[in-house]
Amino acid sequence: MILWNCGFKTGLFAVQCHSSSFHRQTLCVKLHKLQRCQNTAARLILQQLGTSVQYLVDRLHWLPIRTLIDFRITILTRLCLLAIQYTFMN
CA quadruple 48, 54, 58, 63: dihedral positive or negative? Predict the structure, then answer.
């Protein structure tokens, strides 16, 4: 069991992983790149270069990338569990 901790200020998401540390580092690099793209998009949309990125993302009501991924995994898991439940109820 490992924890995804890429230096983001969001919560840690526990996952079971049997891969090497190289894959975890690659994942963290990709998450960081995605977060930078989101930050740049927020600056472009609001056209405010000197403002804090966290303020811009909050103003747009966007979740940070790591939190967004955790949220989507949670929603997909819930949908799968509900689908199984509904199958048994029929």
Answer: positive
Cβ-based neighbours of 65, under 8 Å, separated by 6 or more? 8, 31, 34, 35, 38
Question: Which band of pLDDT confidence, cut at 50, 70 and 90, is reported for residue 1?
Answer: very low
Cα–Cα distance measured from residue 71 to residue 10, given in angstroms and rounded to the nearest whole number: 12
What backbone phi and psi angles, to 5 degrees, belong to 15?
A: -135, 155
Q: How do residues 56-72 score in pLDDT, each as one tens digit?
A: 888 999 999 999 999 99
Report the C-alpha gap between 5 and 2 in whole angstroms.
9
CA atoms within 13 A of residue 70's CA, in its CB half-sphere: 15
